Amino acid sequence: MLKYSKFLGLIVFVFLFAMCNQTSKNKSDKETILKGSLDITVDETVKPIVDDQVAVFEGTYYSAKITVNPKSEAELINDLLNQKTKVVIATRDLTKEELSRFEKSKIKPRVTPFAKDAIAFISSKSNNDTLIALKSVIDFMQGKPDTGIKGLVFDNPNSSTVRYMKELAKVKNVPTQNVYSFKTNDEVIKFVSENDGMIGVVGVNWLSQPSTEMVDIVKKINILSVKGLNSDKYYSPTQNDLAEVKYPLARDLFIINCQGYNGLGMGFGSFIAGEIGQRIVLKSGLLPVRTPGRKLQIRNKLLKDNE
């Protein structure tokens, strides 16, 4: 009886081992760096640029299918740490504490920067003043009086824009009065366009690449030029001012891949950091981490004809 039990246990072990190997084999057969399906969780403040990248990637590699799930930064990082998602697009790198969580699970995240984004301040077109001092916004965040700001409007209490501004103002919480929050950047833009004196805080990507429904609404707002804390000049969230490191509210975009194998996350990360992906970033109005090359072709015949 004992021998029979051992024999049965051995059969079960061999069966489970074979099933595990088959599962791994099936997974590797279904997904490579250029084929398969992948869910990506994306910081909602930069969704437009990611949608463009995915559209071109899928149009280039027909066997790849990427689903974009927009979430707030707090939700995104929480899902990544709890391994509910394996690949994310974030507006910041992982902290030492977050990296240590992955080390305990023997996972080494692949972090790839691919663009420079910016936080923009917006106001209604009915407001003739298109300039704002960053110090005034920080003073407002710190609850100081007489800042000249009627109210601040954020997209989401857990968003990357709120976290960015809290860190800049060195406060744990935003003021309880005259601060408004919605669910999306589009809602912020619409609210600001209809309410004079309000200052909206949004990802500039939503302004440089508005959806069809938002094109006319974006025309009703001003993108404010900002004076930094150590500057006496005002700068805008343009590619030029970002490239010259003049705009004071710039931030980097990262793709963070925790798949742990050579899957579609690696392929997509290489794509957006490569030549085509960087051209998409450049066209979007954001700043690529590396300038795409330009090829010049000189035609001798044309030169001779012009002589």
Written account of the structure:
This protein has 307 residues and is α/β, with parallel strands linked by helices. The chain folds into two domains: 30-116 and 252-288, D-Maltodextrin-Binding Protein, domain 2, CATH 3.40.190.10; 118-250, Periplasmic binding protein-like II (D-Maltodextrin-Binding Protein, domain 2, 3-Layer(aba) Sandwich). The protein is built from 13 helices and 13 strands. The protein has helices at residues 2-30, 47-60, 73-81, 96-104, 134-141, 160-169, 185-194, 205-208, 215-218, 239-243, 264-273, 275-284, 300-306; strands at 36-43, 64-71, 87-90, 110-124, 131-133, 151-154, 179-181, 198-203, 221-223, 225-227, 234-235, 250-257, 287-288. Strands 1, 2, 3, 4, 6, 7, 8, 9, 12 and 13 form a ten-stranded mixed beta sheet that branches. It has a three-stranded mixed beta sheet with strand order 5-10-11. The longest helix has 29 residues, at 2-30. The relative contact order is 0.18.
Care to give the gist of this entry?
By secondary structure, this protein is an alpha/beta fold.
Task: Jot down its keywords.
D-Maltodextrin-Binding Protein, domain 2, 307 residues, 10-stranded mixed sheet, single chain, disordered N terminus, alpha/beta, 2 domains
CATH topology of the largest domain: D-Maltodextrin-Binding Protein, domain 2
What integer value in Å does the Rg equal?
24 Å
Annotation, overall tally of beta strands: 13
Q: Helix share of residues?
A: 40-55%
- Terminal Cα span: 101 Å
Give the topology:
Blueprint: H1 2-30, E1 36-43, H2 47-60, E2 64-71, H3 73-81, E3 87-90, H4 96-104, E4 110-124, E5 131-133, H5 134-141, E6 151-154, H6 160-169, E7 179-181, H7 185-194, E8 198-203, H8 205-208, H9 215-218, E9 221-223, E10 225-227, E11 234-235, H10 239-243, E12 250-257, H11 264-273, H12 275-284, E13 287-288, H13 300-306
Helix pairs in contact: 5-6
